[in-house]
Amino acid sequence: MATGRSLAGVYSARATRPMPLRAGARAPCAGAAAAEPAAEHVRRLVAEFDPAVPLDSAVTPPSGWYTDPDFLQLEIDSVFFRGWQAVGHIWQVKNPNDFFTGRLGNVEFVVCRDANGKLHAFHNVCRHHASLLACGSGHKTCFQCPYHGWTYGLDGTLLKATRISGIKNFNKNDFGLIPIKVATWGPFVLIRFDDESTEDNVYDTVGNEWLGSASDLLGTNGIDTSLPHICRREYIINCNWKVFCDNYLDGGYHVPYAHGDLASGLQLQSYETLTYERVSVQRCESAPAEPDDFDRLGTKALYAFVYPNFMINRYGPWMDTNLAVPLDSTRCKVVFDYFLDKSLLDDQCFIKKSLEDSEQVQIEDIALCEGVQRGLESPAYSVGRYAPSVEMAMHHFHRLMHANLRHCMNTVLYCNLVNSATFQLHKKHVCWL
Ligand code: FES
Ligand SMILES: [Fe+2]
Questions:
Q1: Which cofactor does it need (predicted)?
Q2: Does domain 217-376 have CATH number 2.60.40.150?
Q3: Has this prediction a pTM greater than 0.85?
Q4: Does 160 contact ligand 1 (Cβ within 6 A)?
């Protein structure tokens, strides 16, 4: 995802048509920062994890990966700014004029469907004086800026610039909303910031580009558009976003200790983990239920982790998704969306009880994650170990992170860290300046 600073290098500062996003062009360092010192402590943190060590001998990433604000800035630039990122689901923009807003790092975005039914995504920033434009989610025929009333269509066109009589060198067509690439995969809406193409900004579908060779497995195991959205729950958790992901990726290791009720509904000895390019899948069979028992889990559960921060859980008649959004280095927001088989939409009892059971698991996980974060911040801890028979998906995640970070450390993006506004805020804590 872009930071405000990065976008300054991406889009023309002149009051003209915005330039397309171009990762390699975000390089104020090309001239100014060539002599800047490397961000050594972040570089050292990345290097402290060795992805080549086999799982049974490997140590986990150091605690600085989970606590350091500069490390998070590098993650934002190099992980969230690269490739497709899940940001919502199709039911949020089902009808013409539907929209929803969001934030990734410093990027404010709005996803909407115009009056002709075409999907769009834009930076949610007014071209006049930068006010945020749309708020929350809903249904609108246009976006009117709350500040001075400039008005945009849901196709991004500037429809009305108020009280600009006398203005010179101003062409309304150059002041539309700045577009972001948007796509869908099954029921999910994705955006990306690093696509340089100036072609149409909407992809009907990303095909295998998002999920790689896991695409078929997920597409044929009930992760599709047939399940209507039921509700959303959001949790602010006092932990680094990766603590939540790690907790998800331990192969059911913590389930018998932390989720007694859930454990009794699963056959944990059947747990298996599969890893793909950027996806890992954990599968588990459920304990047989009596015919009249409440049974939200069905006969088997599938838990797919889509790098870097999106989780898809498919069990019985339910699908739920978890999106772990970093807020700062020690805080994240996790968004849960629940989808249910159409045949049960009227069964309010079943829905209520299912959501209560799911909530109970989340409360238990939040306590675990917040406890881990406090431990990571303790001087007593530096690195840990993996349980080789169960924590392979977590190791896979850390290796992907390392590859991503390492790659970007060696590119121009890293120079941006040195120059970034966020970095400047934190530089008093940084040893190399
Ligand atoms: S900032 Fe939007 S109209 Fe002025
Ligand atoms: Fe859990």
A1: [2Fe-2S] cluster; Fe cation
A2: no
A3: yes
A4: no
